[in-house]
Specification:
alpha+beta, Ribosomal Protein S5, domain 2, 2 domains, four-stranded antiparallel sheet, 18% strand, disordered C terminus
Length: 444
């Protein structure tokens, strides 16, 4: 019997994808209208399965294969938290189905592991009857994701948790690791000596089951900022996929090597300036500015047309692209591949500002354009059934003549246009405890 179900969107970086790895540095991301779904059905024991890995299964307390590691960590931290704030007793089978890949199973680079964590956390909390804010979901899912992966900014988790267009500054992950270590109850059944066999209680999954998750959620996370951004109604976003997946974990690890700190600091400063400039250019005008002051949480404005010229947008995106290429040379990280470069050049020739998205080395590029408001047709709602799990075709939303022309040119060059648009923002009511103290700014 189905107890609960939830979904979480994939993500794309618009800007700041490498600089945001450094705590406090900003990035701009969009949650997209392709999702990971998680369903909880009644069962005698907690277990995890996935439609993408039919041969794998996790029974909580037993061995966890790598392909179910994120889901298992998310399940442990979610049921830990839910059991502390809910009196309901639940035991269930968590089944995951991802739509963040092509028909042959190749990933698009939309942050599937982050979306898995968010979807599982949401579904498990719902099974316990817990109504959690997007910020609470983020903190639980981000902790699970970070402890499994060991690096990354957690920006993909923020976008998947919040939905829509998200401005994000990454928290201090060393603080997070220390907090987890300090707030995890000891294993009273710890063996006298470690064995080579998998031991659930001694693994990170057992640790997550003993973590003080209430304190984790209520604690202010140093340097963390998440703000919802209302995008302009006449902002066009096109996405091209090279067909070559990239390993974000490997690329981020390589980019983190300590080389020429002065030049790297210059890169961080330039990136922050350009991210803030892009945010200003793609945001809908509002009579009331979104405050960044601690304790003030102003709702997002309704989308309205942009009056900013495309030339200004092109200039800022070109700056962001140049910064990534400079980092690529500085850290010997293959950000802009030949396929990405070709796709970017085609987009620029069609009047779009364009750059690689995410870690690069393959995966996706994004193209942005400000369109006269009168020429923009209404799109299929991003949360409709048709767009939720659509294939990588380009027919499920209306586009301008320029977009049609760009998509055709991309296809001729071997780049697949993805029919992606912004996923709706999550609007679950947040309690005051979700915005606890200095260092955090949320706009939900």
């Amino acid at each position: 019997m189905l107890i609960s179900e939830a979904q979480a969107p994939g993500k794309l970086y618009l800007a700041g994808e490498y600089a945001v790895v450094n705590p406090g540095n900003p990035a701009l991301l969009m949650a997209v209208n392709r999702y990971v779904e998680a369903r909880v059905s009644s069962a005698q024991r907690w277990l995890v399965t996935s439609a993408q890995f039919p041969g794998s299964q996790v029974v909580v307390g037993g061995y966890v294969p790598d392909n179910l590691s994120f889901a298992s960590a998310a399940l442990e931290i979610a049921r830990n938290y839910a059991s502390k704030v809910s009196e309901r007793e639940v035991c269930g089978h968590v089944h995951i189905d991802s739509h963040l890949q092509s028909d042959d199973g190749t990933k698009f680079g939309l942050g599937s592991s982050a979306a898995v964590c968010v979807a599982v956390v949401r579904a498990v909390l719902a099974a316990y009857g817990v109504q959690a804010s997007p910020v609470t979901v983020f903190k639980l899912a981000a902790t699970a994701h970070f402890l499994v992966q060991g690096n990354g900014s957690l920006g993909d988790v923020a976008a998947s948790s919040m939905g829509g267009l998200v401005y994000y500054r990454s928290p201090d992950r060393e603080w997070l690791r220390s907090f987890v270590d300090a707030h995890t109850a000891p294993d009273l059944h710890q063996l006298a000596s470690a064995t080579e066999d998998f031991d659930y209680e001694h693994s990170l999954y057992g640790m997550l089951s003993r973590l003080d998750t209430v304190a984790l959620v209520e604690q202010a996370w140093p340097q963390l900022v998440i703000e919802q951004v209302s995008e302009a109604a006449n902002l066009e976003i096109e996405v091209g996929w090279t067909g070559k997946p990239a390993s974000t974990k490997a690329l981020v690890k390589k980019a983190a090597k300590p080389v020429e700190p002065a030049k790297y600091q210059a890169f961080l400063h330039a990136s922050a300036h350009s991210v803030d400039a892009l945010r200003a250019l793609v945001s809908a005008p509002s009579g009331v500015p979104v405050s960044s002051a601690v304790g003030e949480f102003v709702g997002s404005s309704s989308a309205a047309p942009l009056s900013k010229p495309n030339g200004e947008l092109a200039s800022v995106v070109a700056e962001l692209r140049a910064q990534l290429n400079e980092l690529s040379a500085l850290r010997d990280v293959p950000v802009e591949t030949d396929e990405l470069r070709r796709g970017i050049e085609i987009a620029v020739a069609h009047g779009f500002a364009a750059k690689s998205s995410g870690a690069g080395g393959g995966d996706c590029l994004i193209a942005l354009r400000v369109t006269p408001a009168a020429s923009v047709n209404s799109a299929t709602p991003a949360n409709s059934a048709a767009s939720t799990n659509s294939a990588a075709a380009t027919t499920d939303h209306d586009v301008t003549v320029s977009s049609h022309s760009l998509r055709k040119a991309w296809q001729e060059a071997g780049i697949t246009p993805l029919a992606l648009s912004l996923s709706p923002a999550h609007t679950t009511a947040a309690s005051s405890s979700d915005f606890p103290a200095e260092g955090e700014v949320y706009d939900v």
